[in-house]
Structures are given as C-alpha cells and as structure tokens.
Design brief:
The chain has 7 helices and 12 strands. It is an alpha+beta fold. Strands 1-7-6-10-9-8-12 form a 7-stranded mixed β-barrel. A hairpin with a 2-residue loop joins β2 and β3.
Length: 231
C-alpha cells in the first residue's frame, strides 16, 4: 500500500433528519457527529438525502469535505456565522488533504472500507440557502474548494480514529482539475474527452460530457446555481 496521501479523519457525520430552508427540502443541515459509519455499497446506514436524483446513489455514497475550507470561506465573507463541519452535509472531514492531492479514480482505504473517488461535488443553490449568500455555490464552483464523492468497493465500518491511505492511483486528473475542466464556461471537446475517459469517473458526469460532445454545447447552470426562484 502506498504511503502517499496518508491522513487521519477529523470527523464522521451522518443524519436522517430533513429540513426545509426557504421552502426547499434538504438534508444538508441534518448531519451530526458520529463515532463510526456503517457503510454499505449503496448507502451509509442512518444517512438520508432529500433529493436522491442529484445526491446519493452508487457513485455518491460518501461525501468528503476538507475542514480547513470553512476557514477560507469565512475569510471570503461567504460564511458569516460560526458554521463548521458538517454544515456542508459531509460524511467525512479531514485536515491536510485537499482537491489538488486527490485524483479521480483514486482507490483509498479508510479503515475497513475501500472506496473510489468518483467526482467533485457539483455545488447547487441549497448552499446559498444554507449560508445566506446568493453566490455561495458559484464561489465553490470557481474556487474548486468543493470536496469529493466516493463509491464503495468494499463495505464495512469506518471508525473515527481510522486513517485514509491511497491504495492505487488510476488517473492523472485531480479533483481540482476535474472541476476546472468540467466547469469552464468555454466549450472544450478535447478536455471533455480526456475527463470522460477517466477510469472511475461518476457515470452522471460521463453522460453529461458525452452530451456536450454530441451537441457541442455546455448546459445552462443557472437552475443548479440559483434554484427555481433564481435566488
């Protein structure tokens, strides 16, 4: 096993409580600290999503968000209260591991659980509602301080004192670069083809990139970033 990318967990979170923020159902604010996560191939036991179409599923079982990003968002005045983990709705929190160091397709060992990095988080308007800032989702998209998702290869239990270790690196595209390629406003067929061919990339991202190549157009992000009311 590689000694690269060894990191210890700083927090584990889960929650089954859904709320409404400004009339929108969400589970982002329902996560609580946990001593362990019981992880299945398709879900974390006791963890729920309000919108299974865009959250959860086999490619997004676990959400990992670097804890130090909260400080950066506070410095940018995008977080004005004392919000900290797990206010982003994350399951896993660490310090010292970021989107430039984790690649799409990476296979990682977290305690007894083996996972694979599938995609960056695609920020949506619920973050704007969560933090009371109209452009929070856009700032996350542009800054690439987004966290990432895992699919589960070997289920089991993750304990709070477990380590994260890199087992195998499958691609040369980091989570940060994937964000930059995917969310560039300029159409780039070569970049889309390169990203879509990444081993381990979430199928929803592969499908989206293939649609762009077929239509030679980038989809409109307005609804995702600002919601149905454009807030």
């Amino acid at each position: 096993m590689s000694t690269l990318l060894v990191n210890r967990l700083s927090g584990l979170y889960l929650g089954a409580v859904l709320q409404e923020i400004d009339g929108v159902s969400t589970g982002i604010d329902g996560k609580k600290s946990a001593q362990h996560l019981r992880v299945n191939v398709d879900r974390v036991e006791g963890d729920e999503q309000a919108d299974p179409k865009h959250h959860g599923g086999l490619d997004r079982v676990l959400h990992h968000f670097p804890r130090e990003h909260y400080g950066q968002y506070r410095r940018w005045d995008l977080i004005t209260q004392l919000e900290d983990a797990p206010s982003m709705g994350e399951n896993i929190s660490t310090v010292g591991l970021n989107e430039t160091e984790v690649n799409i397709g990476d296979i990682l060992q977290i305690g007894a659980v083996t996972v694979q990095v599938t995609q960056p988080r695609s920020p949506c308007f619920k973050l704007n509602l969560q933090f009371g800032h109209r452009d929070f989702a856009l700032a996350m998209q542009q800054s690439q301080l987004c966290g990432w998702f895992y699919r589960v290869l070997t289920p089991g239990v993750i304990q709070l004192n477990d380590r994260i270790e890199l087992v195998e690196r499958k691609t040369d595209i980091s989570v940060a670069e994937a964000m930059a390629l995917y969310f560039s406003p300029e159409y780039d067929a070569k970049a889309y083809d390169r990203l879509a061919s990444c081993e381990g990339l979430a199928q929803s991202w592969v499908n989206s990139l293939q649609r762009r190549l077929a239509t030679q157009q980038v989809e409109d992000w307005q609804m995702r970033l600002y919601g149905p009311k454009g807030k």
